[in-house]
Amino acid sequence: WERAVEEAKQSAGRKKRVLRIGTSALYPCGELIALWGKIAGAHLVFQFQVVPFDDAQTASIRRELGRRIDIMVGPFDSLLTREYCRLFPLGSYPFYVAMPRSHPFCRCKSLSLEDLATEKVMKQKPGNSPVNDRIRADLMEACPQITLVDAPNHFDLEVFNRAEAEGCLLIVPECWKDIHPSFVSVPLNIPHTLPYGVVYSTEAGEDTREFLRILKELLPQVT
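RE: above sequence
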């Protein structure tokens, strides 16, 4: 009780800092806000302003971080945007195979690359994500006859709609396995994972840098 009172006094004497967090269907911010509420304690001087955006705007949002939106949360392995944004890592996601609910693979508990040999698979086009490029290379080595269809570098729900219309499977990180109601996802047995965390500008402002500094300091306390 005494510690709680002391923390409240400290917080009351500090100026509130506003941090604008982008949120979308594929990049929801709830996990980070919940994590911060769990670990922040006396550092609750940050007030979060949630700013919705369309996933189709992901590329431009990343390029303009620090203007309308300070940070976003989600998977990040993009060579094309590292010139102007960075990742504060929180963990990594394994991969799943997403498929229409009518597909026979829906009954499987897991899948291997070899299982996809006769399938039509939509995969992020090469040259942007090193992790996805390695998966593409492994797919082509394990399944020389596989049909690969290029998907955009930045996913949105339209990619799922297109995959359904064209009869394609999708290889997606775990965080997107339940994103589309017409798809079911099954774990893919590969050693690769996709890093995720807080994406911020290389020219982040003082409040963003202080938030990340505190987050780095407090994260080891999370069990």
